[in-house]
Automatic annotation (TrEMBL):
Lineage: superkingdom: Bacteria
Organism of provenance: Paenibacillus selenitireducens
Source lineage: Bacteria, Bacillati, Bacillota, Bacilli, Bacillales
Class of this enzyme: hydrolase
Family annotation (InterPro entries): Amidohydro-rel, Guanine_deaminase, Metal-dep_hydrolase_composite, Metal_Hydrolase, Metallo-dep_hydrolases
Name by which UniProt lists this protein: Guanine deaminase
Length: 456
């Protein structure tokens, strides 16, 4: 009899395509010693009864109880880990003022490793408790604290992709918070990449270094060029903010007479492993360039409601086959939950479609065909994130990592309104997506290992 590290039995929801959910009712999931799903078996399959009989009494066999369901772990494509310390505050001012008044002073404190340790431990465990099994993080300019964040992800079992932030521009960044000069920024980035690649060897789930120019205004041309070269040399991920707000987008136009996408491309920063946050102002040429280079868009719907001065046309970009995932953008977005962000993604898309200018007749308001469904928002939070990172994550299927959340709809303090045992599973899925709270997330698994559990 073949040995597995874990076997699970229960009903799972996984994205089949952006618009379609796959319901795996009472399936068996066999997880190998690498934490990958080796096979899934449906109740209709001929060998199901024999397999169930053979494995169900083992200690590593987990059967979900009534009202419990599997979801894939969430992939958060944009988190500023240090900003967790200020989440929920200061969202009533424009991006430029928010950065200078609140965010840069806070991030400058991460030269203090004790403070960094405290905040980073807390943000990683909070994200895990919210079902986020993979996170793409911005740290700060500090090399040591950025390595510490990767170490904390490794220790807590989260698949963390971490960037030491580069801010080498001598005039556009405050004196108290920037890289000393371009050479130091690039040397620190290279040392950071090497350290995280070394650390990755001792993890099962993987941790990854990410080349991270904060956004074009923060960086010199030489800095951006050097970062593009490092990304190519070490074949790393790249992340940045792209065409986020009127101000940030306009700055790049003034400096390069181009949109962010083409400027970043000129510096070698649009690659298969690139994820660009926000992208509210990208046009069709920018989108085509993203498709050509394999660059993904990270949609940050809560943050965009505060800082973007626009709503990104997600449905249009999906139709153009741009890879898209979802991001919390802590703390531009206040919530560490991708459930909350998925809900806002749907709401924002409806507002874009329906419009708000009531001086116009109903049929002339808004942008037609902009709405996305909760299925599409779920896709962004799971499979879309996995595709954006080119990793086998975000789906509960064979050859994907066992990154999963067990949702319990019966928890007394957060009971979901599921009243009939035979309720349509599409309805159950929608109730979970709209109503689940952290209390409903009973267990979280990454790469076949349990990394979070709550009893009630
Ligand atoms: N642009 C540059 N830095 C930031 C940041 O920290 N958050 C957001 N939302 N936008 C940025
Ligand atoms: Fe951001």
């Amino acid at each position: 009899m073949k040995k597995y590290s874990q076997i699970f039995q229960g009903t799972a929801f996984s994205a089949k395509s952006p618009k379609e959910i796959q319901i795996l009712k009472d399936y068996l999931f066999f997880i190998n010693t690498n934490g990958m799903i080796e096979q899934i078996v449906a109740p209709e399959d001929a060998d199901y009864p024999t397999l169930l009989e053979a494995y169900q009494d083992q200690d590593n066999f987990h059967r979900l109880t009534e009202g419990q369901y599997f979801l894939p772990g969430f992939v958060d494509l944009h988190v500023h880990a240090p900003q967790w310390a200020q989440s929920g505050t200061a969202l009533d001012i424009p991006l430029y003022d928010w950065l200078n008044t609140y965010t840069f002073p806070l991030e400058s404190k991460f030269s203090d490793m004790k403070f960094a340790q405290e905040v980073y431990q807390d943000v990683v465990s909070t994200l895990l408790a919210n079902g986020t099994t993979t996170a793409l993080y911005f740290a700060t300019v500090h090399k040591e604290a950025s390595i510490l964040l990767a170490e904390i992800c490794a220790e807590q079992g989260q698949r963390g992709l971490v960037g030491k932030v580069v801010m080498d521009h001598p005039e556009n960044n405050p004196e108290y918070y920037r890289d000393r000069d371009t050479q130091t920024a690039l040397a620190d980035t290279e040392e950071f990449i090497i350290a995280v690649k070394e650390l990755a060897k001792s993890t099962k789930q993987g941790v990854y270094p990410v080349v991270t120019p904060r956004f074009i205004p923060s960086c010199t041309d030489e800095g951006l060029q050097g970062l593009g070269a490092l990304a190519a040399k070490y074949d790393t991920y790249v992340q940045s903010h792209c065409s986020e707000s009127d101000w940030a987008h306009g700055y790049v136009q003034d400096r390069f007479n181009k949109n962010d996408a083409f400027a970043l491309h000129d510096f070698g920063l649009l690659r298969e492993k690139s994820v660009m946050a926000h992208c509210n102002f990208i046009n069709d040429d920018d989108a085509d360039l993203f498709v050509k280079t394999g660059t993904a868009v990270c949609h940050c719907p809560i943050s965009n409601a505060y800082f973007a001065n626009s709503v990104i046309p997600i449905a249009h970009l999906h139709a153009k086959e741009v890879e898209i995932g979802l991001g919390s953008d802590i703390s531009g977005g206040f919530s560490p939950s991708l459930f909350d962000n998925a809900r806002q993604a749907v709401i924002s898309s409806r507002m874009l479609e329906d419009g708000v200018n009531t001086t116009l007749p109903a049929e002339e308001r808004g942008v037609p065909n902009s709405r996305i469904t909760i299925n599409e928002a779920f896709y962004l939070a799971t499979a879309g994130g996995g595709e954006s990172l080119s990793l086998p994550i975000g789906r509960l299927e064979a050859d994907y990592a066992w990154d999963a959340q067990i949702i319990d709809t019966t928890i007394t303090s957060a009971k979901l309104p599921i009243y009939q045992a035979d309720e349509d599973l599409h309805d159950v899925f929608q109730k979970i997506m709209y109503l689940a709270r952290p209390e409903n997330i009973r267990e979280v698994w990454v790469q076949g290992k349990k990394v979070h559990s709550r009893m009630s």
